[in-house]
Amino acid sequence: MQVLAVASEIFPLIKTGGLADVVGGLPPALAHHGVEVRTLVPGYPSVLRALEGTTVVAEYGYFFGAFCKLLSGRAAGLDLFVLEAPQLFWREGNPYSGPDGQPWPDNSVRFAALAHMAYLIARGDFGPYVPDVLHAHDWQAALAPAYLHYGGRSRPRSVLTIHNLAFQGQFSRDLLYAIGLPGDAYSLDGVEYYGGIGYLKSGIRFADRVTTVSPRYAAEICQPGAGMGLDGLLRQKGLALSGIVNGIDVDTWNPADDPALAATYTADTLELRARNKAALEGRFALVPGDGPLIGLITRLSWQKGMDIVIEALPSIIAAGCRVVVLGTGDAPLEAALAKASAAHPGQIGVFAGYDENLAHLVQGGADAILVPSRFEPCGLTQLYGLRYGCLPIVSRVGGLFDTVIDANAAAREQGVATGIQFEPVTREALEAAIERFVALYADAPAWRAMQRQAMSLDLSWTRRAGAYAALFRSLVEVDSA
Ligand SMILES: Nc1ncnc2c1ncn2[C@@H]1O[C@H](COP(=O)(O)OP(=O)(O)O[C@H]2O[C@H](CO)[C@@H](O)[C@H](O)[C@H]2O)[C@@H](O)[C@H]1O
């Protein structure tokens, strides 16, 4: 079975967050289930530099206002289609925003072009390649099912995966013709969304199946609040909406063989983690010690609950913990963290930036990974934490709820506990969770047992990809029945 995926990020070529990990991790895992994936991505500089065995599939003098080529080739072991359109995508740095941190003003056109190219490939313009299923990720790709619909095509079937409902891609209605949609598409039952054009809304409306990245989040987004304006439409999808928990790349994230660590280790050699902890103390200029060390690896944003962490930092330090933060994002949160670090020298270390290797060292050296999100579709950092025996302290939402088993008395008795959950997302609840963490950590045999349990879980994409393969097959089998 052939699947055409389309997305704006793919690890290891271009990444701003978890979307890239998923888009890069799924294809090799789906191959084990007999599903061949080719992924269409924009021709960013980093993608074009990595592309090998390139062939030109098609060339357009004028495509969404730009000269463009559709390339095919391979990079980092992935089969790719690349939309090379220098006017739209030859921009270094963040794929969505300029050096001033503001979204590129032409994002509407850039990602409509991407989705439209996916549609052209999907409908068979570049045969013999014709996919059985089109799999679009997030708002940047979400117009593709709408193009299929307005192009009069019901095949191939389409799946939209929502990684984060907070990013919806809403643009002016004046763009309708410029992005190649007919006048009648602008209706409540079409692409219209609160007086504009909603890219994610269009994908939800027209995809045959909508998935999100955990069952709990799939249920949450059908409610007002977490539904962020789309809950009504999502409720209407009924059984066509489901949640599939993300896997992780267990080769890239493997404590037994991780070049970013000072010392590699397994569940049987957990004492070696101490060397990573020492390396982490060095990197973050912390006072060395045996006391509990909490790590955070995150976008600094409201979603991730960072304002609450900042409020709670004095009590977290007073409880005897040290904290390292690896994060980038909202300037006021970055400033507040720098201030907290200056107020608690040697206790709070902050690296305001993006550093993939340092993320691995945090997972390999910290005792716990804190993920206090207000909402979290799945979350990957807690999964990496489980794999590294860096036990997650998480809010009880979305994928965090689905993937961490709270260390309550019953769970500990049965030996299934893997972390700590708390609710609501408030300073008080977080502080109470930290108290529980400190007490659990002090009971070294119990802590070790939880670490071993966490590290024994199968979090691999190979396992999770089976659910996607089954979904794709169910769509194709309906057709051939
Ligand atoms: N400063 C930094 N330096 C280095 N690495 C950093 C970093 N900040 C973040 N990262 C990395 O970026 C990724 C973040 O992934 P998450 O899933 O936790 O959140 P994100 O909100 O980006 O993803 C969205 O999509 C994913 C994928 O579906 C969902 O899991 C999630 O809930 C949803 O919000 C991880 O690989 C993490 O290690």
From TrEMBL:
<feature type="binding site">
    <location>
        <position position="15"/>
    </location>
    <ligand>
        <name>ADP-alpha-D-glucose</name>
    </ligand>
</feature>
<comment type="similarity">
    <text>Belongs to the glycosyltransferase 1 family. Bacterial/plant glycogen synthase subfamily.</text>
</comment>
<keyword id="KW-0320">Glycogen biosynthesis</keyword>
<keyword id="KW-0328">Glycosyltransferase</keyword>
<dbReference type="Pfam" id="PF00534">
    <property type="entry name" value="Glycos_transf_1"/>
</dbReference>
<dbReference type="InterPro" id="IPR011835">
    <property type="entry name" value="GS/SS"/>
</dbReference>
<dbReference type="Pfam" id="PF08323">
    <property type="entry name" value="Glyco_transf_5"/>
</dbReference>
<dbReference type="GO" id="GO:0004373">
    <property type="term" value="F:alpha-1,4-glucan glucosyltransferase (UDP-glucose donor) activity"/>
</dbReference>
<dbReference type="GO" id="GO:0009011">
    <property type="term" value="F:alpha-1,4-glucan glucosyltransferase (ADP-glucose donor) activity"/>
</dbReference>
<dbReference type="InterPro" id="IPR013534">
    <property type="entry name" value="Starch_synth_cat_dom"/>
</dbReference>
<feature type="domain" description="Starch synthase catalytic">
    <location>
        <begin position="2"/>
        <end position="236"/>
    </location>
</feature>
<comment type="pathway">
    <text>Glycan biosynthesis; glycogen biosynthesis.</text>
</comment>
<comment type="function">
    <text>Synthesizes alpha-1,4-glucan chains using ADP-glucose.</text>
</comment>
<feature type="domain" description="Glycosyl transferase family 1">
    <location>
        <begin position="288"/>
        <end position="440"/>
    </location>
</feature>
<protein>
    <recommendedName>
        <fullName>Glycogen synthase</fullName>
        <ecNumber>2.4.1.21</ecNumber>
    </recommendedName>
</protein>
<dbReference type="InterPro" id="IPR001296">
    <property type="entry name" value="Glyco_trans_1"/>
</dbReference>
<keyword id="KW-0808">Transferase</keyword>
<dbReference type="GO" id="GO:0005829">
    <property type="term" value="C:cytosol"/>
</dbReference>
<dbReference type="GO" id="GO:0005978">
    <property type="term" value="P:glycogen biosynthetic process"/>
</dbReference>
